[in-house]
Amino acid sequence: MLKRNFTYFSVPSILILAQLFAILFYLNANIVNIGGDGVAIPVLAAYVALSVLISFILFLQKTLFFRLHFIVFLIFLAWIAIRVILDYGDLEKLHAITIATTEGIFLFYLVGAFFSISYSYLLEKKIGFAVPALVVILFGVMLTYLLSQLFGRTRKDLFLISELYGAYQRPGNFHSISFILISAIFFALVAKIKTSNKKRILLYFWITIYPLMTVMALVSAQLFGSNSATAVVSGVSILTIISLFLMSNQRIYQLHANGQLKLPFSKQVAQGIIRFGIIGAASLVILISLLIQVTDFDIKNIRLLGFGSGSISSIETRVDIFKNTISDQISYAPIFGNLRVDYLTKNDKDNLHNFFPYIQANLGLIGTILILYLFVLIFRQLYSSIKKESQSDGSLVHALISFYFILILLFLLLFANLAVGVSWAVMWFAVGFISQPFGFKSRA
Asked: Alpha carbon of 280 to those of 73, 221, 243: distances in Å?
């Protein structure tokens, strides 16, 4: 998906590094500051400015293009804006749901889309592995600093920081976004090392680093009480490990060389997903178990296990809301929807925490059709890329990257339909990044 239309060797690497450093620093600063107000807005502005500068440099040399699903996304966003104006008549609400730094759909979509341009640069053959390696190292340093800050605030009775005030959703989303970002960069790093025939010990070193960062990210998520971030980090890490094993599988490479690999519907790949998925999940469980054993940690003291209550309140609450309100909310305004449907159906503060049902109830059939069409276009784009790249003369690495993106997006959609509404920043960052809504190609 990202290889054929892009040639980024004319963009200074220092700009890409500065851009990626800026977004990682912004995300990490806001996680560290959990319980307080949003911080580092100038750094976010720097990320946007650097992204625009990179895009302008490319625009001087290439032809800018927009994909159809970008237009569909803008129409979907316009429908949300119409509903906000009609149902709330409040511009502050419109600002919050579109461009605010907590749940702004358009903002995080653009953050992801700008990242996709830099990610394409990282995949270029002429770019070495030093750039992605530096970004991964920076993330490791930031993660270490985050843990040190969180441990300094840990309560004595629970594995949770003090003075949290229930403010775990925003940092949880930022934590999830940063982990998705670094997982994709890590995948690109390993791919570049593997295809450049570097010493195998270098490859083993980096593959060892990723599970360690995963455990650190999981510990961080539980320290500030985000089950959402815990789920995203766990799922994305397992899918990343699966994809890395697939990329290293000699049988798959042989089938590709012979023109016999039929991605994404390949028996060998399906078997690999199951086998490597078990290996990835088992590895994560073993690492965490060893950590618990070494530290003599009481696992019941984490929020994921209800702090020893035997139940997970966040899941139970969502299930109860779904069962008790789904019928009333979806049937209230089935065609046009209403963003105040929870209040109007006397279920105030019981908004659905399920992505597609929420859209149907709040944005109606119009919103549902638009969002389904958006995802159909994105998955069709990824599927076409895989088919093209998996041919004998194509790039297996790039085909597997597109396949990896499909797995990530499917996982996020599954989780979103279990736990979140439409304004989940993680989803819109991933959509903007994975779909690559706009880019640059060589002029004819």
From this structure: 34, 20, 10
Q: With 80 as the cut, is the pLDDT of residue 443 above it?
A: no
Burial class of residue 248 (count of CB atoms within 10 Å of its CB; 0-12, 13-18, 19+): middle
> Model confidence at 82, in pLDDT bands (50, 70, 90)?
very high
pTM (global) more than 0.70: yes
* pLDDT recorded at residue 396: 81
pLDDT for position 95? 94
**Under 8 Å CB-to-CB from 2, ≥6 apart: which residues?**
116, 119, 120, 123, 398, 401, 402, 436
pLDDT tens readout for residues 85-137: 999 998 999 999 999 999 999 999 999 999 999 998 888 867 778 889 999 99
Three-state SS annotation for the chain: CCCCCCCCCCCCHHHHHHHHHHHHHHHHHHHHCCCCCCCCHHHHHHHHHHHHHHHHHHHHHCEEEECHHHHHHHHHHHHHHHHHHHHCCCHHHHHHHHCCCCCCHHHHHHHHHHHHHHHHHHCCCCCCCHHHHHHHHHHHHHHHHHHHHHHCCECCCCCCECCCCCCCHHHHHHHHHHHHHHHHHHHHHHHHHHHCCCCHHHHHHHHHHHHHHHHHHHHHHHHCCCHHHHHHHHHHHHHHHHHHHHHHCHHHHHHHHCCCCCCCCCHHHHHHHHHHHHHHHHHHHHHHHHHHHHHCCCHHHCHHHHHHCCCCHHHHHHHHHHHHHHHHHHHHCCCCCCCCHHHHCCCCCCCCCCHHHHHHHHHHHHHHHHHHHHHHHHHHHHHHHHHHHCCCCCCHHHHHHHHHHHHHHHHHHHHHHHHCCCCCHHHHHHHHHHHCCEEEECCC
Which of 114, 178, 55 minimizes the C-alpha distance to 432? 114
**Residue 255 above 50 pLDDT?**
yes
Report the alpha-carbon distance of residue 45 to residue 205 in Å, rounded: 35
Token pair in block for residue 184:
């994709």
